[in-house]
Queue: 2 jobs
Job 1
Amino acid sequence: MIEKVLIANRGEIALRVIRTCKALGIKTVAVYSDEDYNSMHVKQATEAYHIGEAAPAKSYLNQDKILEVMLKSGTDAVHPGYGFLSENDDFANLCEKNKIIFIGPTAESMNLCGDKMKCKAAMLKAEVPTVPGSPGLVKDAGDAEKIANEIGYPVMLKSVYGGGGRGIRIVTNDKELRDGFESVTGESIAAVGKSAILVEKYLEKTRHIEYQFARDTHGNTVHIFERECSIQRRNQKLIEQTPSPIVDEETRARVGKSVCRAADAVGYTNLGTAEFLRADNGDFYFIEINARLQVEHPITEFVSGLDLVKLQLDIANGEPIPFKQSDLKMNGYAIECRINAEDTFLDFAPSTGPVPDVIIPAGPGVRCDTYLYPGCTVSPFYDSLMAKLVTWGQTFEESRTRMLAALNDFYIQGVETSIPLYKTILNSDEYKNGDLSTDFLKRYGMIDRLTKDLKKEKEEKSEAALAAAIIHSEYFKNRIQNSTVNNSNWKYKLD
Amino acid sequence: MIEKVLIANRGEIALRVIRTCKALGIKTVAVYSDEDYNSMHVKQATEAYHIGEAAPAKSYLNQDKILEVMLKSGTDAVHPGYGFLSENDDFANLCEKNKIIFIGPTAESMNLCGDKMKCKAAMLKAEVPTVPGSPGLVKDAGDAEKIANEIGYPVMLKSVYGGGGRGIRIVTNDKELRDGFESVTGESIAAVGKSAILVEKYLEKTRHIEYQFARDTHGNTVHIFERECSIQRRNQKLIEQTPSPIVDEETRARVGKSVCRAADAVGYTNLGTAEFLRADNGDFYFIEINARLQVEHPITEFVSGLDLVKLQLDIANGEPIPFKQSDLKMNGYAIECRINAEDTFLDFAPSTGPVPDVIIPAGPGVRCDTYLYPGCTVSPFYDSLMAKLVTWGQTFEESRTRMLAALNDFYIQGVETSIPLYKTILNSDEYKNGDLSTDFLKRYGMIDRLTKDLKKEKEEKSEAALAAAIIHSEYFKNRIQNSTVNNSNWKYKLD
Amino acid sequence: MNYKIQDIEKSFDGKIVENLGNNDYIIKINDNEHNLKIITMNSNGIEFVLDNKYHKAKYIEQSTNEMNIVIDNVPITLNLHTHFDEVVYKNSGGGGTGDAQLALKSQIPGKVVSISISEGDSIKKGDIVCTLESMKMQVAIKSHKDGVVKTIKVKEAATVAKGDVVAEIE
Amino acid sequence: MNYKIQDIEKSFDGKIVENLGNNDYIIKINDNEHNLKIITMNSNGIEFVLDNKYHKAKYIEQSTNEMNIVIDNVPITLNLHTHFDEVVYKNSGGGGTGDAQLALKSQIPGKVVSISISEGDSIKKGDIVCTLESMKMQVAIKSHKDGVVKTIKVKEAATVAKGDVVAEIE
């Protein structure tokens, strides 16, 4: 039985894991870098150990140091959270060797999930549909043309040595394919001296839909419904919801079965997520398995009633999953907004610094997982996720309006946040109608709409702003008459 | 359709109502006394109006002033919360006359609920069991003896002019009854110059179990399950939970039906609560109807998935209840702890003052309705309820352990709270086993156990306390060497 | 310095062994050394990590030989044996508690509803001196000893803070 | 005083008409009088009720003729037309924005990963001056105008705060 868990992470996810451990009477060990000595996870854990400098490589990724703390503190299990070491099979191996339970899949299974080619092969064998295309590299243009005709145009030619949009060509017929093949080959040779090309079906207006699943050491597998995570920026999820507006009971069960086959195929244990692209015609294509707890797990918790961290601990303890697929019933609707410290208008550039004041929303159907507290700091060394605001409702509309009210209540002083953008999105007809796709922001010009919304908001607030300015000037005048003013920073001299 | 609601209340319940209104796009009007100008409900409402001095009679109970604000602000409905004007039929009448929707029952029905004798008569007619006893006053000892033999000993003789335990005698046979009748009569005459005696069955080890119900203007009535509120001090609820550990499906439905008859019998509209005493033999006896939203409504929200304030608004708008009794399914277990500003060891005496710092618990299955924020004040003018901490779990054990973890996380600086007592109660075997009764605290010596728990906690914290003292002394020594000390309040001179 | 904790049958010796800089200290309690790292500190309180456990303490009150703190939400009174007399003002009101103490203090804040005694009255321990109202409750303030009422320090309808002197009983 | 709000095509006249005491004021914006009650105020911000609506403002920055505030989470820049020059220090760095401005400031905080130019280089508007890293992202800081690099104010691996001058371009 696991009695003491080290959380090899920080921020809201460390707090999330600590919370369940506390409720279960399990002791927790926090680790922290120089940057985090005043962070909430240090304060909430049973014990806390300093592990190094701010840079992740010198602290949260420092396997030797973390192992040292685990051995010193008598930890019997480690929860990796997400990011950092969560999908590092070397670390999973290191834990296994030192007889510390790694709360996640085995190193072997993790390795299989992480190798895209091997994983795709395993999926084909398990009859889990992947994006149609060449099973591996194509030999030549003729080979590519044959495959393109099998899977149907448009197709994408992709150099495996490309990246960031280079070495990719979308073609719609045999002629374009032959021309494209030549130029992609040329580009790739020019860039890296060699070429190797894949053919894949090109999908437009796709949705990102993923399935939570769990598999225990006895081979029992369940899926815990889908999550739609189509609203993204730069391939990073912003808003997630469950159920997906376009998944019905039949689809849920059908794709869910393929998810269980996928988990079995890679010999998975513990909780994982199978990610799919959903084409506009309704087909689902497996992309990859995320071998860890996901950021967006709370929406699944809301509709399933499960504590997913508790389920992770149960499975890590070698217990069978305490319910059957047929026991799981989806209850209501949940939405998560990732509250990032970023400036939407600077292309989502990071915004960091001290947060002197915070008001965290609460109320019926509202959950907020966050590391923020008044007086905390948003560090530039780690990722920009400050809080996960999650709402539940009996209907989608109830969860949406609760989210809007909660977004309005959320006050974070000192840094830019993605909150205004989410208000614009949640108020849009396209979002309300469930017309989602991974290019949602661009497709519907959300940033421009946000600009308009903010201008309107400014107009609404202009009288109040003036009032604040008038009082400030008065206050200032009165004070400078009565004191010596250091002109260089008078602002701080007033009190 | 209601578009603007005035909340004739303050504190956490005002915030609770504002929250649902916000989610529904309904404007809110807050009212506040001199004491509350810096309170959270002022900050969260769309509009806020000052209505008078701190004393409730001069503000929150000032009907004329509140009416004035309603008319000035263009309010079309008023939510009374609980306490203050919530069960005042004059106020309900005043609203009706001014064509402002009172979110609650009609003045007439409220009046009937408030008159214990009339209400009891209505219940007898509706076949809702009340505590057995004389239908009204007894004529003489002979009459009392006849009734005692009908309902069976032990019985209670109660002078209607008594109160606070005076003029009450518990008797177990005819002889004791005749002696008792004489002395109760004598005591009452000695004290107030007259005597009038009721006979009622004496019940030992009773539980307080109540039912949430709703009735719309079309006459549809549903009950929304029971709440067990047996853990009390001085007849005030401390901890509530649902489901009750001793209510099974059959009992829930059977008593639930009588609750619906009770609501029909008094021509109730909107949300109400029917309170019962549950005798140790399993019999339920109706006590009274609380004609308002209850403090403990969130536990019902957790297990039903309903937003009860939304339901109140729907009914107030004249809409039929949007579900049937058979649609309601109980999901999981919920517990509420009332976080009061009080000193358990001073017989629950109030504790008031500034609260410089607060940490409010959150997480999966945790909800905290509170007016607290860092820098707020707990006022001596209003009641002691600072926060309602509510947890939900798939099992009772999950809701209980989540509550314990949340209680541990809850940090309220500056005032005494009931949190330590709740930790002792929730850890007790009697609570875990569901062995509840209205005399739970005394029956199981909870205050003594708390004393022991606190002593143990002190021992555990003694090294940390010493460390804090050592550092403090050092810090102090260093500072006094470097500055002039004003001995009279050196504490404030250090920084 | 030597410390005793109220309600606990042990006494402790405690001192700082070394200031390692960077807010790190080694302290010694009885015979054991501990690592202590200060996270934040001001005159009202301290947050620190002691042997890898986080603690938060608030300093409430200190007199020559007594210190009240709240540590991790647990109120603790420490008795100090030291010689700070020359600099520390004893701000706990009168001298000691019990029969010797002149001042009767209110343990709760509230508004004075009624006063039940007059100056010069002889009263017994437990007699009601006045009644306060707070949070809709009425609470009686009772005499802490037998004696004669020297002065009454409150008036009807006045507001009393916790710890305020209500009357002096000789 | 006369005010303009950035991005809004109106200008406003505003003044305090009367201080009623007890933190209550009457103010006038253009031709309309408003009631204002201050709830709390210090040099960093204010909470107030304006015509029965609560607002919370934070004062960010003020120069001779510009004031940045965040009101109810909405950032607003006001242009002031007044004569405070004698007392107010203009703390917004250089003079104005656009081509005349010498200083290229970073709009984000971060660590300098690489510097792409040298002093004396001729560069075009939009050329990358340096690259910062923050929250696992790399962000390029680009020149705000055509010109010659006069000085580079940052070094590789150094930390840059939001608003820090990265380079001066003439």
Job 2
Amino acid sequence: MLVLLLLLIPLITGLGLFAIKNEQQTKTIALLSATATTVVALLLVFNKATIIYDTPWLQSLGARFTLKADGMAKILCLLTAISYPLIFVAVYQRSYKNSASFYGLMLLTQVGLMGVFLAADALLFYFFWELALIPVYFLCSIWGGEKRIAITFKFFIYTFIGSLLMLIGLLYVYFQTVDHSFAWESFKAVSLGGKEQAAVFALMFIAFAIKMPIFPFHTWQPDAYEQSPTAVTMVLSAVMVKMGIYAILRWLIPIVPMASAQHAHMVIVLSVIGMIYASLIAIKQDDIKRLIAYSSIAHIGLMSAAMFTNNAAATTGVMIQMFNHGINVLGLWIIAEVIEQQLGTRKLSELGGLAQKAPAMAILLVILSLANVALPLTNAFVGEFLMFNGLFQYNIWIMAIAGTSIILAAVYTLNMVQKVIYGELGSASVNATDISGHVKVVLIAIVLMILAFGVFPQHLIELVK
Amino acid sequence: MSTIQILFFLLSVLAIFSAIMMLISKNPVHSVLWLITVFFAISGHYILLNAQFLAIVNLIVYAGAIMVLFLFVIMLMNLNADAEPRKHQWMKLAGVISGGCFLMVLISLVRQTVEITGKTALVKEGNIGLIKNLGKALFSDFVVPFEISSVLFLSAMVGAVVIGKKD
Amino acid sequence: MPIQYYIYFCLTLFSIGIVGVLTRRNAIIVFMCIELMLNAVNLLLVAFSKMHHGAALAGNPATTAGIDGQLFVFFIMVVAAAEVSVGLAIIVMMYRNTHSVDINFLNRLKN
Amino acid sequence: MSKIVFLVPLFPLLGFLINGLGRKSLQKQATAVIGSGVIFCSFLLSCYLFSLVPAGDGVVKLFDFIKVDGFSIPFSFQVDQLSVLFLLIITGIGFLIHLYSAAYMKEETADHYARYFAYLNLFVFSMLLLVMGSNYVIMFIGWEGVGLCSYLLIGYWFKNANYNYAAKKAFIMNRIGDLGFLLAVFLILFKLGTVEYNEVFAGISTLSTADITTITLLLFVGAMGKSAQIPLYTWLPDAMAGPTPVSALIHAATMVTAGIYMIARSNILYTMAPTTQTVVAIIGLATAIFAATIALKQNDIKKVLAYSTVSQLGYMFLGLGVGAYTGAVFHVMTHAFFKALLFLGAGSVIHAMHHEQDIRKMGNLKKYMPITHITFLLACLAIAGIPPFSGFFSKDEILAAAFAHSPIYYFIGVGGALMTAFYMFRLYTLTFLGNFRGTHEREHHLHESPAAMTIPLIVLAVLSVIGGFMGIPAVFAADSHWLEHYLAPIFAGSTALVTPHHLSHTQEYMMMGIVTAFIIAVILYAVNTYKKGIGEKEEAKGIGKLLENKWYVDELYDAVIVSPLHSFAGFLKNVIEKTGIDGVVNGVGKFVAYGSRQLRLVQSGQVANYLLIMILSMVIFFIIWFNDLHIMRFINKLF
Amino acid sequence: MNAIIFSAVLGVLLMFSGILFQKKSAITATAVASLTLLLIVNVAETSGWIAIAFDTKNLLSFTKFGLFFNTILFAATLIFVLLSGTEIEKTGVNTAEYYALILFVLCGISILTAFNGLLMLFLGIEIMSIPLYILTGADKKNLKSNEASLKYFLMGAFSTGIMLMGIALVYGATGSFDLNAGANKPGSAGLEIPSFLKSAGYILLFASMCFKVSAAPFHFWTPDVYDGAPSVFTSFMATIVKAAGFFAFIHLFETNAAFLGPSWKILVSFVIVATLIAGNITAVFQQSIKRMLAYSSIAQAGFMLLALFSNNDMAREGIILYAVAYCLATIGFFAVLIKVKDYTFDGFNGLAKKEPILAFVATIFLLSLAGIPLTAGFFAKYYMLASVVKNGGALWLVITAVLFAAVSVYYYFKVIQSMYFKDGNPEVASGSAMYKNGLLLLAAAIIVIGVLPSIVLNWFYF
């Protein structure tokens, strides 16, 4: 029942919000809902057992409404749940036109995300997968930046193609199941031949690769991140890209293990190329949002490479890194949002010297940046350590090449830090003031999480075991 | 060559010739007349096949009613002078060629059909084409389509009225 | 008569009808060509009907096999008549509005 | 013991938190007291630990840091002779430098003052983690942590873009080394399934020589970055952008010696990998000479000291490379004393000169700053290796070991020592002797520094003078090398593996004598040459210009690595990403749109055309039907 | 049989209602009543309460599947009339006749869902088609409507000719018009050899059926006719009529596909791919939403053809679901479209501001057409894909279909973009409250089916 609440709370409030006109009320209700969800998620996390909710749905199709919260699902639900109140508080002062619809759609997205992470039935999974996408399409297209319509459209169609291919893959497996069921267990029990596995792998992998995104399917992402309203960007990059990774861990590798192992090399090489590639491009970015976007691609690249190393520790690393990367990147986006809101620019060349005007923000940005470069004792370190370790055991040379990304990460992250907060005041930062109280609260919460999970990562590791 | 064969070929040649003439005559009225000739030839075929009822119906319905209707319309529109501008030559050529291809393909198909080799259409004999037999069948086995075709007529009638009458 | 002859003949007529549909511009003539096609089919059906009848007759003198073919022709005629009434009405309506029955001018709707 | 070990790093951490969080509200006084106080507490604790060590049990586990299938990494501390020695150096010198900073940084506003102390405390914390960690991962945590603090402190004056650049450079170059370190950790983890020192060293026998060589080389790459060895040394001179006490603490006394600590800690690995040892020795030696040559022509007081540090670090690596682990650690210690002293002295000078660092504009400062002068001179003598100052003993130990290994090492090393003596006394002379060459206004303001700054100078001067007696070579008195005895348990594994070959006493005396004589000659020559000062406009030529421009290494790196990388990144961003990948993605869309425009032309509106296409497609249908088997075969081939 | 009789009789009744009632709304009301009655009698027959038994001499056979299909199409027609009745009234003066013709079309449809031989197929198609020629030309003063009508008629008659030739050839080969007649004679090697004549006949039949369901390359009439016809009748033609056509198509080839041998799969996949290309790709560049919908209906036909390709149980269930989903969404969207004056995309700019409810329901309909989950359209497409996957092989066809589904998202979402993301002041006739509520109910139905498609299918299975 607890897991069902994770879906119901945002669903009901999300739909209910459309009826509300008052902006203040909207915000309050949305925030309350998000907080309630977080509480439920926390209860779920503290409950050690795997919680299952199961009810018939489409029996003729062999699909059931099955939600299953095991460690990996829990940690991602927690991420989804936690990020929402943080986002809502962070954008509390920002006034979106038609705010009821905005918050309503945001909450509906949350339903989709939760569903994706909880679903233990392939068809249900696919449903939520799409459900998470549709509200985002509207959110970005209505409240986004200048080129929002075309960019969002590209993003939507791109991911939509992927998900349809995934559907074919799922269908294919479904017809091979013994009991004609979409249940995860039945899927796992299917043993496909080599050629079939390869086909299913190709179909499903493309969907997940686009979602994550893995080089060279990534071009929608910087554009989408740049053009989306920042609150949505936060959801996209903190939570939504994790859908792809999660899906690979849950729905791809266990179901077609042979093909996964066969293609692991290709995926890992692609991912590593993507890491280096995105890092290099990030170095040359002048737009803070695009920079974070490329940095995110690089980080995701590491996760996707580590997943395919077939190494238990690395997989653990991926799981906790999903959470940690979500938290970190959320913080970075909040900073980007604050900068853009306040100074009206995202160009690094126009910024600078914010440490003088906004010391609190500067400190928080530095800590977030450190987490971004996976400095030890920040949360990202543990994940990256485990993942690199897995990659190392897979192939030392690939790991060595991938490892250069930690240098490059330092380069672009410190570039950003330097250009934003250090140096003389830039043309746009003359009028800057420090971040407001509630943004500070959010960021401090994030920083505390960064440090807490950096020093005591074992709690997360225990959770995902 | 028996009489029937001679008749067959005569009628066939007549029909084809008339059809081609219908196709190429510039004056629509001429076309109508040529088409009526075709229908007559076909009715001749029906008689050869001892399908007397159909032969008569063909004459009455087609050559009589339908073609007269055509003629009326053409005259109503005063199209008897050649009102038709020339079509693009290539389009004509393409039409003839594709029609020819279609014919060729179908004929080659028929030529390869094994099961009809040596089969003949019963000429002169066989009385299924007689009105008595047809009537029996029509009102017993085929009464449903017969009744249903009334709906067809009704709708055609309604349609013609709806379309044709002045608002 | 060998059935092939009928088939070839009917197909030829049918194809002439097709060629006419493709090459003529006058809507009425086009329609007439379609009628020609229908007639070709009719004759073919009757020929087949007699063929099947002939085949069945050998075994059973009282058979009515093949009668359905001729009845089908009857229904085709019914339909053709109905079509003609509607079709001519449409052509007349068209003519009233445009004073033309040239199908080449039917290109307000395209692309 | 296990109960209090964690307090040692905890105090600086507390200091960091209090100063960092309270920087808006704390008075400067309070900041300084807290900042220095916590370090002093740690120092006292370290002293206590020092007294416990011979009896102590070593490893203290706090909690499980990472525990996954396959391996577990505890968060635990190892307290033994080596770490306690470093603890003392770090907290001791750290405390002095904190004290010194309290006065040196007086001009900063209260919150920046607090920020400074917070960073400094954080640095000490990280450094303590580095040396106290009982496994490579904890060491790596400290390793990166000190890099971070170095970054923060170099860029302390964040308004200056150049300083930020220097800070960034330091961090990134360190990261290059860190990657090597990390790879080594992974390799250890892969081969042995553990990163705990005790277990690694115990399991070493199961490893092949190739593995050990790889591990040690990779670890050494880490050390290169942290301890500023060729080719990763260029960040250290630039790091002088930070406040001078920072240079003293981080870039002279403690952080840069982390590489030496690490190798000393892993001595058994290195001993078992002779190839690596050779590499270490050669790189150390090359760095020692190379940096010394650059130092000869530098005019920035801190730059000279920086290159000197790089050079001295090179000596330490030489020592490690030739197996003189004790010597290297010994040199770390003495170097910490005198180099910290030199930096603090330089800081005192800079403080007096109002942040003027060009030695060509100084001179005759001994008149205004007697304490600074004396202490600085003592430090110069120590670094030059004049007996009985501390530097003599430690450097001699290394050189002696080098000679035992290969005389070539020795002679080159001695050449470096001579250069050291030369540039140090060039520096000393230009700064303190001769006439003052700055403006009158500046001369007017010259003053001795306050007590908070001079007391550390004096303490360090005393240490620089007497520090060497901790390791009196056997040639003077048998069994009087206290340090060697003290550290013997740490290096026991290594000493067991190598057969020591001692030089004869006569030989040793002779070498000492000759070298000392040479050094004294060089010193005199330097003092003589530079008494008059050097002109600012003096254009260096030939090799001098080369040295003045630091062999153009920075420019070389820029041309060979940085610029190509940037243009490659630009190429990726503008060409591959935009027109390449995104072009393909958008191209699909464009292709569809183009297809749409073309395809709708088929919809010509002409009935005849439509019917024509229908007829033709029927013909095609028939053709397909005729040839279905061929087509099927074709399709099957395709898929 | 109920449906055939009642639709014919009620059609005649409606014809006379024009004389009885002066007010057009009364005629509409009668139509609604008639359709409801029709629906009821059909359900009655399906469930076996009241069925007019009639010996059809094996010419018609009333299966549950066919009757259920009838129910769906009748219900769709009812919804169509409820939503767009006022528009039918506005189209011309002959309201009663239009309703009568619609009922005659339904009569034809009832035959098509029950035919058991080529004769009834032919009659059914003609009864369905001839009223449509009229309805297309209902807007007599509008040249586009005239043109569409004439084009439709000429091409329709031509395809009838093709179909008849096909029937004739089949008859020649088998001597019967029964669907299952004339098993192939075993050849010398004991293998069944396909009868060339029969195959040729069925290929021609295939072509003409393709024409009826507007499958490429026989689709050319569709855009022009749908575009030219009065919008309300386009809505009817594009949905109910087309669905019936599909039923007939699938029914016709259910048993007769096998003997065409491997070429059958090639032919169908050729047609599917061509249809998907022609529909989707051409739709991308359209400026008029109405014309875009015409192309999109071709594209949807491409998807429905997958049922023909797979030809299994799942395909049959799927075609039901597809019919429901597609009819509801298209009828709904047309009901909105009719209210907007300018049919171009720009004419929809800013609709969400002016008429939020219309825009919202239109969005749901479009999402359903695009096959987005949570809408009925998803399961429709899902079943189609699943039926093909179930047969194994032919993954490439599924992938192609899916890629084109993604293309379809492009043009459907362009409408959403116009409504929601662009500013403008569209001229839109505001509908009555009943109309809006009806639309909302329809949208709700689409979502409910999208979540629980078994609602529809369970009726089928009872």
